[in-house]
Predict the 3D structure of the following.
Amino acid sequence: MDWSALQLSLELSLWTMLILLPLGIWLGRLLAWRAFPGKSVVEALLTLPLVLPPTVLGFYLLMALGNRSPIGQAYETLFGQQLTFSFSGLLIASLIFNLPFAIQPMQRAFEAIPQEVREAARCCGLSPWRILHRIELPLAWPGILSALVLTFAHTLGEFGVVLMVGGSIPGETRTIAIAIYDRVQAFDNHAAAVMSAVLLLISLVAISLSYFAGTRIHREQSHA
Amino acid sequence: MDWSALQLSLELSLWTMLILLPLGIWLGRLLAWRAFPGKSVVEALLTLPLVLPPTVLGFYLLMALGNRSPIGQAYETLFGQQLTFSFSGLLIASLIFNLPFAIQPMQRAFEAIPQEVREAARCCGLSPWRILHRIELPLAWPGILSALVLTFAHTLGEFGVVLMVGGSIPGETRTIAIAIYDRVQAFDNHAAAVMSAVLLLISLVAISLSYFAGTRIHREQSHA
Amino acid sequence: MPDGLHLRLTQESPIPLNAEIACAPGEVLALVGPSGSGKSTLLRSIAGLYSPRYGQITCAGETWFDSTAGINMATAQRRVGMVFQSFALFPHLNALDNVAEAMLDLPLKERYKRARSWLQRVHLGGMETRLPRQLSGGQQQRVAVARALARQPRALLLDEPFSAVDRATREALYQELAELREELKMPVVLVTHDLDEATLLADRMSILNHGQTLQTDTPDRVLRAPASAEVARLMGMRNLFSGRVIQHEATHTLIQWNEWRLRVRLHPRFQPGDTIQWVMPTSGVLLMPTRPHEDEMLDNPIDVQIESMLALGENYRITLSAGDDRLTMQVPRYLAQRFSLLVGQGLPVRLRGETIHLLPAES
Amino acid sequence: MPDGLHLRLTQESPIPLNAEIACAPGEVLALVGPSGSGKSTLLRSIAGLYSPRYGQITCAGETWFDSTAGINMATAQRRVGMVFQSFALFPHLNALDNVAEAMLDLPLKERYKRARSWLQRVHLGGMETRLPRQLSGGQQQRVAVARALARQPRALLLDEPFSAVDRATREALYQELAELREELKMPVVLVTHDLDEATLLADRMSILNHGQTLQTDTPDRVLRAPASAEVARLMGMRNLFSGRVIQHEATHTLIQWNEWRLRVRLHPRFQPGDTIQWVMPTSGVLLMPTRPHEDEMLDNPIDVQIESMLALGENYRITLSAGDDRLTMQVPRYLAQRFSLLVGQGLPVRLRGETIHLLPAES
Amino acid sequence: VLGSAPAQAQPATIAAASDLQFALEAVREQYRLDTGRQVQVVYGSSGNFYRQIREGAPFQMFMSADESYVQQLADAGLTEDAGTLYAEGRIVLITPHGSVLKADTGLQGLGEALDNHQIQRFAIANPEHAPYGRRAEEALRHAGLWEALQGHLVLGENVSQAAQFATSGSTQGGIIAYSLALSPNVSRLGDYALIPQDWHEPLHQRMVLLRTAPPALHEFYAYLQGPRAREIMRDFGFELPEAR
Ligand SMILES: Nc1ncnc2c1ncn2[C@@H]1O[C@H](COP(=O)(O)OP(=O)(O)OP(=O)(O)O)[C@@H](O)[C@H]1O
Ligand SMILES: Nc1ncnc2c1ncn2[C@@H]1O[C@H](COP(=O)(O)OP(=O)(O)OP(=O)(O)O)[C@@H](O)[C@H]1O
Ligand SMILES: [Mg+2]
Ligand SMILES: [Mg+2]
């Protein structure tokens, strides 16, 4: 069992969730309540990272973020290290290919909040910030939870983009998905099965617990 | 441009959506309104296809559906042809790895339907079937649309599972994702870029249109 | 098995219920009770949307619910028309479709024709294509009423169906309801807080408190002779006082109240000396100066003082201090002006003993 | 700039508005009008939840909305307390939290202490931890009322705040509102369909129809002297008829109605010969046999026939056929019994000319 | 362009073609026993490594299954020299247990099975981009079976995947790397027969040190060309070029 790869994957998942959470909430709300021309196109654009094969997306990201790209060079000047083949690069890739899962469920969840409830919140004098965390987030919670869980699971499992952008460097960019893939490629079915089982089990427990706790939190919100 | 691969991908996407639509509606409603012990675990289980790297999932599916497996043998006896390396096998794999996207958004959408509205429908004497297609589906429509769009996009882009179960047989199991991947691997960046662009464009148009039409249908439902 | 709607339900929790109601075909039963007394829960039980722990519900000879026999007919089979307290319109369907949806057994054209005519009947002509969110509260409520009526139901369940509608429209709807009731001969259970509405529309009235049906009778009798002090209070009867029975005469009973002896209608069930409570409608208190009438032999003249005067529509609600108690009367504005009634002034009034009803003292 | 709340809004569509209201601090203004007349829309405009095309809204000297100056203050800044017609409770917060949420400017402990006391005041003690969906309709409405009041708002906007509450509780809430209004000295705009409620609670009353304010005056004056036949009809005044002015005397005006000449209070603004409409409250029609009084010189005895009798709480609503018109009167049950009133019988009544109000004929 | 300093904290890493994964692991182990030092190896597709190295991937040595990538990197000036040819790959026909097809060096069995319509699926790596796939195509063409196999071929992304296909039981056989077929995990699953070396272009495996290579890697680079490593490589099914 490659624990460091598992740890890396979990870290990557957590960071991805952590960053996509505010981003998804912001974009989800925007898309839920604003009507603007071309909204459908924006929504469609946000789905596109799913359309390209991951390795190909990874290839293009490698080009876009690599040493020779403006982004890569700017990053290197700023932080003194290269963006691709590093955890940061992995994270950026992970954010991009998880966008579709994060935004859509959150957008739907915000759309489902009755207008009157938001109006009542404004009439109660709640600040936009308070409305967000006290009214909107709890009400949109199931959708947000879905988004987070999908993001979590998908980040654990994704390897095409990660392999291309990260380069499978042990301890730094070699995720558990790549490790399992390698074992399968090496016909080491036993090790692959063990790793898969551990990964599935951990995911199952983590996701079950978050759904379980999630609905409980949601239900018992009010006793805060 | 490999048009036959594109056509195959579109067919695969359509079939996947077509089958996941009723399945997702059925499972989504079940999960939305039934409470049973271990529900969180079931929800988590439905997310697991995302957790394994696609190629690894594909490998296990190849084992599970192959000629030596009971499923594969049963299929062969029934239909006189083998399941793996065929469109049917591809479709089954596609259904499995798309489950998480299909079920979750639909479940959330059904959860958001106010209980009273469903009660009113029963009081109006609507049959369960009529309640479904006249009340629940239109109200859950945005979530269902999300699910379908994510499934569509993801099926177009997925290639790990598809390659493993399908074997990249031109005209039969070689999807556009595999074709683009192959072009990239063969350093034919130009062809890859053209194909990617075409795929992205088609997806963009298709998804934009379905969001656009989807919200309109939703809005104008009542003039039917 | 009897005709009409019969219900008997009991449970301890979460919502306490101990209710029994019956409603004949063509009858309107008003369900009256304070907020939270379980009125909506009863209607929901009848509709099959709520299943209490114990009890039976039958309608037109069919058993809809029987906890002992394990029967619980599906809502759709019960064929009830229900107006929800919160309307519960289909948010994505326009007014016309909302109503048409309740008539699926009719052919399409007929359905929409009737739906249109139903909307007319609830004064919503021209609003056919509006979605619920484009309608005002009262308009939504009327769509809900039209939807419930349109179904030609076997039982009509109305949960405060006119609460958001203005007076004039409401009267028109009363008319529709009255006609429909003649036409369809179904039991109608009407939840309302408006006693005028109850007396106007209902043949009988059931008083509910904490899930328990306390009294069921014609509105007139409930108002004249409430079964208990609790019912009297629930009916908003302000003139509820303690007293003692002195003796029974041939035509009346004599009771002691503060310093007064009141002649009240004969209540032989109480013994002289019994402590009782008595209750009287505000209309039982009259200003003194009218010509004596043969039916006024039970009138009890007493002297009281005006404590407060409250304008209330075309009347004044006048609170009078009578000994330690507070008596309430209702006086038309013109009479109040004619007699120049003023707060603080002494006033001779008559208590109409005929309207005085004796009740057992509360334990 | 004046104190209190001032509003003047106009637009053509989608919701026609042509309204002007003013409400002083501590004043209760009742907004009365038929369903769909735009009452909720006006409240929503005041709260900043709806922005009409043209107009101004000012409160306590602050401009909240001005279409010409492009001012549109955010709802949260306007500090209004609002009871929504559909309650709009926060579905995931319990009753206590719902109320506490409106008092964020207070420290946590104080907030919950007050929220608890507010729930007590609306008779919901013990329901603190219930979620909205675990409350009955009336209980939810009271949480909404508590939430609006708790805010110590600069303007209180109540959209039929008592519609789902029973009589007894409602009276208690009236009391709370009256006290609060003394305490806080804020303008209160109250939408209601209940004229009794309006007269009881409101200092002035604004009649709205199709988005247009038709008359604003004390409830008493609106009822006695509606500005137009439209207002009279909206007030549910059934006795609205056509007539002609014959002449003005020193103390009264003489009008012709069907075969009768009626003495009515002086209306010098009409010319003899003018066709007019006249209106009279149902309490203006009296049974004949009472002793003549000095103020009865304007009484007009006429002979009519009883067409129908409708029980209505403690009264009968009696429709009388008078020539081609239908006259409505309200008679207490005991009087109806005393005079053995029966449908079809002839009846001498008096029309109190003092209560008769003349209106220009409708074009 | 010199590799920047801060990235050097990590151990030296070799990017190696997947077909080396058994042989090279054995060499690494021997190296560790012999010298007490370790190197880190990442296995993958040579094409991807090429691309990643062009984009600045932190690999210090590249062992390619296709020497053209090494040449291109050398042309781009990213390597120390033109590299060394260290092995040559062989391909085998592999048939899973229970297959109608028997593994034979001359591929006659495959021809007969094709004639008898007994071949449903036959696995090779994708000739478009996988070196072993290209060689498999050449061999099949040489045997005159290529046309007949059209419609039956399933294409692996790389040779490992082709081997998975070939041994899964869902195909009647396939052509894969000899080095893979020799590994116990694969040989368990079927029978194989070497395909004559002259039926296809040689599979030159070339390795090269990148400019960023630390001294430690130079040592390993040399070790790979030494006798012990060469012996191991040969045991794992590689033909070896003449020793320098
Ligand atoms: N889910 C629940 N759990 C516990 N108690 C509930 C639940 N739902 C309702 N109740 C309680 O049951 C009682 C009866 O509610 P119901 O809605 O039947 O009252 P109601 O008579 O219709 O009142 P209203 O006139 O205010 O609508 C109320 O006291 C309410 O608080
Ligand atoms: N979104 C909308 N689009 C068009 N018309 C609307 C919309 N919302 C409301 N209306 C119309 O505006 C009018 C005023 O609505 P409003 O809710 O203010 O009425 P209201 O006086 O509060 O009525 P009620 O007493 O029934 O609540 C109604 O006729 C309604 O149909
Ligand atoms: Mg209720
Ligand atoms: Mg309204």
